[in-house]
């Protein structure tokens, strides 16, 4: 999955709904989020990511974050969430050949 723009109080509900739809409609247990296009992420956005992580873990899955820009990487580090999520500096090579969803 790819997220672009801002993840904040105003956009988080839409993101939460989209994740809920994807998780409901599929048996996906492994999600990698390309965050290279995220310009801003506040605590509301982090809570959405944490709730998705929790739902995936409940079904034995994982959530990975890829290519967060420096500002988002700093937020993950300051909050300690860089140790909760698997964070890749770039989008994993095997995903680059897949069609975006």
UniProtKB/TrEMBL annotation:
STAS domain mapped to chain residues: 1-98
Cross-referenced InterPro entries: Anti-sigma_ant, STAS_dom, STAS_dom_sf
Origin superkingdom: Bacteria
Pfam name, any one: STAS
Family listed: Belongs to the anti-sigma-factor antagonist family.
NCBIfam families per the UniProt record, alphabetical: ant_ant_sig
Name under which the protein is recorded: Anti-sigma factor antagonist
Protein's organism: Streptosporangium lutulentum
Lineage of origin: Bacteria, Bacillati, Actinomycetota, Actinomycetes, Streptosporangiales
């Amino acid at each position: 999955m790819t997220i672009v723009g801002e993840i904040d109080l105003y956009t988080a509900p839409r993101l939460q709904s989209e994740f809920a739809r994807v998780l409901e409609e599929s048996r996906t247990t492994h999600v990698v989020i390309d965050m290279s296009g995220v310009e801003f992420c506040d605590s509301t956005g982090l809570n959405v990511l944490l709730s998705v992580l929790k739902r995936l873990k409940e079904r034995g899955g994982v959530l990975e974050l890829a290519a967060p820009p420096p500002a988002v990487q700093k937020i993950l580090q300051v909050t300690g969430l860089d140790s909760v999520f698997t964070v890749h500096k770039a989008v994993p090579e095997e995903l680059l050949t897949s069609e975006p969803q």
